[in-house]
Amino acid sequence: MVERINALLKNWQKRNISGFYFPDKEKAIEKILELIPSGASIGISGSQTIAELDIVDRLSSRGNCVFDQYKKGLTLQESRQMRQAGIGADFYLTSANAISENGELVFFSAFGQRIAGIANARNVIVICGINKLAANLQDAVKRAREYVTPLNCRRLEWNTPCVKDGICRNSICLFPEYKRMCCQVLIIEAETAPDRLKVFLIGQPLGF
Ligand code: SF4
C-alpha cells in the first residue's frame, strides 16, 4: 500500500495537484486548521467525510466564517444562499466520490454547487479516506455511480431507481418519473494554478 500511495502522490505532483497523506483523520484536521487562516471564509459541500471529521464547528468556534448550508434552523432559502456564498469563499472543503490511482478526481453532483466550488474557488481542499481509491478512472466513475450515489439516494430518500436495491438504472433514471441524483459529473485530470487544489488522503475509511 505504501508504494501505491507514494505513486499516487507523485502522479498528483505531475498533475499540479498538491497531494498529502495522513495516517489518520486527527493529523489531517490539524493540517486543515493550520492551513486555513482564522479570518478566512469557508464553503463546504454536503459530505459524509466532512461530517465525520467534525471540523465545521471547530472552524466556526475559532472565528472562521463557514457558509454552512446544513446549520440547524435555516430556511430552504437561507440554505440555498449559504451554498451560493460558499462557492465564492476563500476556501472550499469537500470530498471526492472516488480517486483513481493515476490521480484523477471524480465528483458527482445533483445541483452543481459543489462542482462550481471545486472548479472555481481560490483554495480547494479535497479530503478523502483510503476507501475512495480506485484502480483507474473507469473504476472511479463506476464507484461514484454504482456504489456512492445509491447510498446517498437511500440516505436522503430520493425517488431514484437505485434507492430500493442499490442498482443503478441509468437509462430510465429521468424526469418526471424519478428525481435523478447523477446530474453533473466533474472529473479533474490536472490543475493549472499551482497549489490551488490540495488533496488530503487519509489512511483510514471515511464516508462512503
Ligand atoms: S443514474 Fe439514477 S439510478 Fe443511477 S445511481 Fe444515479 S440516481 Fe441512481
Descriptive tags:
208 residues; Rossmann fold; six-stranded parallel β-sheet
Summarize the structure in short:
This protein is an alpha/beta fold and 208 residues long. The protein has helices at 2-14, 25-35, 48-53, 56-61, 76-87, 113-120, 137-156, and strands at 18-22, 41-44, 65-67, 91-94, 98-100, 105-109, 123-129, 133-134, 184-188, 197-202.
Cα radius of gyration in angstroms: 17 Å
Poorly predicted ranges: none
Arrangement of strands in the largest sheet: 1-10-7-4-2-3
* Overall geometry: globular
What would you say the CATH architecture is?
3-Layer(aba) Sandwich
Number of domains: 1
**Major β-sheet, in short?**
6 strands, parallel
Structure description:
This protein is of the alpha/beta class. The chain has a single domain, classed as 3-Layer(aba) Sandwich (Rossmann fold). Helices cover 37% and strands 21% of the residues. It is built from seven helices and ten strands. The strands form two sheets. Strands 1-10-7-4-2-3 form a six-stranded parallel β-sheet, with helices on both faces. The chain has a four-stranded mixed β-sheet with strand order 8-5-6-9, sandwiched between helices. A hairpin with a 4-residue loop joins strand 5 and strand 6 (105-109). The longest helix is centred in the last third of the chain and has 20 residues, at 137-156. It is globular and about 45 Å long. The model has no long low-confidence stretch (mean pLDDT 95). Bound molecules: iron/sulfur cluster (SF4). Iron/sulfur cluster (SF4) binds next to helix 7. Iron/sulfur cluster is lined by residues 145, 149-150, 153, 160-162, 168-170, 173, 180-182.
